[in-house]
Every structure is written in C-alpha cells, then in structure tokens.
C-alpha cells in the first residue's frame, strides 16, 4: 500500500481544523472493517490532533460500536440513563424535543450555572476511570446552530507559565456531579439520580498521557469541585484561573454538524461544550455516542486517581457485552439498526 508524506495510506487526507486542535479526515469509510494501516493512521492522527472529524459516514449502531471497539474495551454509555435498545454501548442524545420556546421558559426549565463556563466538561470525570475516547455521530441535525466546541487541554497546560505548571503538577482535585450545574428550584429527577449515582473521585490536576508522555490539564468546570491541597478561597481562585485559561478561544475548535458526521475525541486531553443555540428552533437534534473505557489518571509525580465513592466505571459492563462477537454487531443489513428518521 502506497503512503503519503505523513506515512499514512495514500488515500487518507488529514487536514488541521484549527491552530492547535482538531483535524478533518478524508478518504476513510468508518463503516468498513478498517485494515491495520488505515486504523494506525487514524490512531496516529487522533494522538496528534486529539479530535477528528469525518463527514458523511452514516454509521449504524453496530458499525459505530465496532469502530469504537477498535480503540479498546468499551465503557457504559451513561451512569444511569439506558442505552439504545439491543445496543448496550450506544447512548442516544436528543435535544430540541419539547424544549420550552420562550426565554423565560428556558430560564426556568434548564439547569443554571453560577458562571458561564459551566457547560464545558470532559465526560464522566466523577468516575475514577472516566472514558478515554468518545465516538459521536450525528443522525439528525438542526437547520442552524448546534455546533460543538472542543478545548485542547494539552496546549492549555503547555501555555501556562513555568511557575504555575510546577504548582499544578503537584495538585489533586475532587470531581463529582452537580458542581457546575445548579438546578433551578427543587432538584429534578435527573439531578437526584446524579446524586444517587455516588460517583466521586480524586484526580491529578495534570495527567500524563501514556502514549506520548504529554501532560494535559485534568480539570473541568462541570465536575471539578475543589483542589484538595489548597484552602477553599485558594482553590476557587486557582480553579477560576484554570477554567478561564483552558477555555480560551485559541485553544479550541468548533464543528458544524451535518447528518452522517462522526467525531472521535480524546476525553483525557480535551473538554467540550455542548450547544444551546438551537433549542428554541423547535427542531430535534439526534446524536449517538459510544465510550471507550479509560483508566485512572497518573500525574507527573506518579500519583493516581482514587475513588472516594462508587466503583470503577468500566465494571458496570457485563462481561458478555465486551465479547467481540456481540450479536448486535453482526447485523448483515447495514440499515437494519439505523434509527427512524436517519
């Protein structure tokens, strides 16, 4: 197989999507069984750019699950919400259905935050072993809006001043649910379920990525409650500084979704911001997500993540569902498990 200048198979094109993070990949059909050179090229691009975008893939649940499993064992799709029927690793994300239309209705219905940064998060960091990768596909999109933004936590760390890097290298922080999101009034069912899930973990504020040795900030506004080694006022000041820093626009990439798109990102090295600019349109946005299992983070000083409450996230997966011959992934008809409306 011929290769291009980057050492990839000749028909694969990887184009940076921003100054630091994200790339568009062309010449790959993710629904096919990727040969080893093609998968290696995708994996290499993901390690370099941390977020990859693939246009017009139109994957089924089974194809998406099979693709994610190439990167490693899979994790539960959500701590408490059910998976898609017959596909234990696929989580349906739908917005815009029955969403309040007026600003006052939205203000009272949505989860409010003490600050504008709260929507930024990495997935499930309240667990001691958050997912390592996420594979997200767009089934239906809105006529406008609905973009997702990612922040590069490796670049964010590297662009801290040297004294501040030395400080955060030695710190740990607590992650739990309902930190960045404060429900309006009485806790709703989802909020109560989040509290009942009991996932609380201590993570290094900086984690080392084992594949590259690069360091990434490992805090996010939605889950990180406080820094353990600091006083409460010091913790608040340092976290506010880090949150404002990691969400600087120049560290980010924004993706405008089209039906059939797939994004794959490193959940250890990025944070992302879900959109809220489409919910008043009266249109549904339907996405499907699969997680690749992660492991406890390791900091620069060798300290690892520790669970304060709850079990390891991956242990919630029944062993039979991790089998490579999962019957749900063997559907010969590519349209057999495509959701209605796709």
Automatic annotation (TrEMBL):
Region (Disordered): 297-342
Domain (TauD/TfdA-like) ranges: 14-290
InterPro entries: AtsK-like (IPR051323), TauD-like_sf (IPR042098), TauD/TfdA-like (IPR003819)
Keyword Ribonucleoprotein recorded: no
Alphabetic keyword roster: Dioxygenase, Iron, Metal-binding, Oxidoreductase
One protein family per Pfam: TauD
A single GO molecular function term of this UniProt record: 2-oxoglutarate-dependent dioxygenase activity
Descriptive protein name: Taurine dioxygenase
Domain of life: Bacteria
Cofactor(s) required, per the database record: Fe(2+)
Protein's organism: Streptomyces phaeofaciens
Keyword Iron annotated: yes
Family: Belongs to the TfdA dioxygenase family.
GO cellular component, one term: cytoplasm
């Amino acid at each position: 197989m011929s290769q291009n200048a980057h050492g990839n198979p000749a028909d694969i094109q990887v184009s940076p999507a921003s100054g630091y993070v994200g790339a568009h990949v062309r010449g790959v059909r993710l629904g096919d069984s990727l040969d080893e050179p093609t998968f290696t090229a995708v994996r290499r691009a993901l390690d370099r750019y941390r977020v990859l975008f693939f246009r017009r893939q139109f994957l089924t649940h089974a194809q998406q699950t099979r693709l994610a499993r190439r990167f490693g064992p899979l994790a539960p799709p959500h701590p408490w919400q059910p998976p898609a029927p017959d596909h234990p690793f696929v989580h349906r994300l739908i917005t815009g259905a029955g969403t309040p239309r007026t600003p006052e209705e939205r203000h009272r219905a949505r989860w409010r935050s003490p600050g504008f940064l709260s929507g930024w998060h990495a997935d499930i960091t309240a667990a001691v072993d958050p997912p390592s990768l996420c594979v997200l596909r767009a089934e239906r999109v809105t006529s406008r809006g609905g973009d997702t933004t990612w922040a590069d936590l490796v670049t964010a760390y590297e662009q801290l001043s040297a004294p501040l890097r030395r400080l955060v290298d030695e710190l740990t922080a607590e992650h739990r649910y309902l930190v960045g999101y404060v429900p309006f009034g009485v806790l709703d069912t989802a909020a109560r379920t989040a509290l009942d899930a009991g996932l609380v973990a201590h993570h290094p504020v900086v984690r080392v990525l084992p594949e590259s040795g690069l360091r990434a900030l490992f805090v996010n506004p939605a889950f990180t409650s406080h820094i353990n080694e600091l006083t409460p006022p010091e913790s608040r000041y340092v976290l506010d500084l880090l949150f404002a820093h990691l969400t600087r626009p120049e560290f980010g990439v924004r993706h405008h979704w089209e039906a059939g798109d797939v994004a794959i990102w490193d959940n250890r090295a990025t944070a992302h911001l879900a959109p809220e600019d489409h919910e008043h349109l009266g249109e549904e946005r339907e996405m499907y997500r699969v997680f690749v299992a992660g492991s406890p983070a390791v900091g620069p000083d060798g300290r690892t993540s520790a669970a304060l409450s709850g079990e390891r996230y991956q242990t919630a997966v029944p062993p039979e569902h991790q089998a490579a011959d999962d019957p749900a992934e063997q559907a010969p008809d590519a349209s057999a498990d495509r959701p209605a409306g796709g």
